[in-house]
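To: structure desk
From: M.T.
Subject: fold request, one chain
Message: Could you run this one when you get a chance? Sequence is below, nothing fancy, just the single chain.
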Amino acid sequence: MSDFFSELSWRGLLYQQTEGAAAHFAAGSVSAYCGFDPTAPSLHVGNMVPIMGLVHLQRAGHRPLALVGGGTGMIGDPSGKASERQLRGVEEIDANVAGIRAQLERFLDFSGSHGAQLVDNGEWLRSLRAIDFMRDVGKHFTVNLMMQKDSVKSRLEGGISYTEFSYMLLQAYDFLELNRRYGVSAQIGGSDQWGNITAGTELIRRTVQKEAHGVTLPLVTTSSGTKFGKTEAGAVWLDAARTSPYQFYQFWVNADDADAVKFLKMFTLVGHEETEALAAALAAAPHERAVQRRLAAEVTGLVHGASAATLAERVSKVIFDRRIDARELPADVFQTLVTEIPCARFAGEGAINVLEALERAFALSRTAARKLMQQGAISVNGEKLAAEALEIDPAGAAHGRWFLLRKGARDVAVVEMEG
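Reply: Done. Structure tokens follow.
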């Protein structure tokens, strides 16, 4: 195996490969591509599996091409879909392509001899003539063969339009066009792309008589059987406007112990020895969540940058550490907190009524708030309030503006003095 295959293998990222693929990669530098579907304005955490495949490809000395589907996105890949996709307009697709392009640039190095390249298949697909496509591409595929592919077979009973049925040929044509233009000889993708990938290798073999290969990566599942990348709030996006860096960090730091080591291997660049050490630490002291904390910091740093990861980590610590002194926290932590957790705002600089703050922050009744006070369950800036306390002294505000109001062990809010 080449270093690329060895790296994918130990990280649990290698699913399938065409015959001779390992030897092809071991023989020298290979140009390989992976396609990304622009039917949404942002990629999500599920897309990070093929993204990391491109990252490891480049680190092994090969040249990655990230293909955004400005052409194929107007059709939509039927793979993994139970019903027909809604067709998107050109303007929407172009806007999505621009957003995805910017996200991919965070992961790959576009400089040097093995510099990555971003390509839009709209360059050749949007001007493609139907008659030419049918003669030059369609003649190399039988309907019988196409119906054997999983992406088509799974849809036959419920129905599949000719539009989506033909998607496989468009992706195969992409592979051929990238081979002609950029010398691309391999494609990587999720395991659901196997049929589309092998269609491309076959088209290249038949039309230009060249060797081409495919490598697939696994579709990720959680140990509980739930769909990876989905939360109660919906998909976990790479776009900070859709999933904030803090929410993104929380998704990873809350990974189940049974998934944490697997995710660390798949979604970070942490090496083998350190991964084993972290796995041992998790086994010995699971309550410390060493793997999850490292996982969250690494992936958030990859996607949003080191400073955003550090801030998300600090904000997370504030929420879950009852003993933290809020007055020592930097202002940017509070500025993030007020967007992520409940915030009760008070105008002016006078003393703040404790019961009113509890009502606003946690939507409590005055009776429920008073009962919690009597139980000693309320703290401000890490200090438990006495049962008879009536006000919060504004002199204790962090940065002259904020307090952390905590109810019990888990519920926390910000009290903010405005003006």
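Reply (cont.): The two ends are 65 Å apart (CA to CA). Let me know if you need anything else for the meeting.
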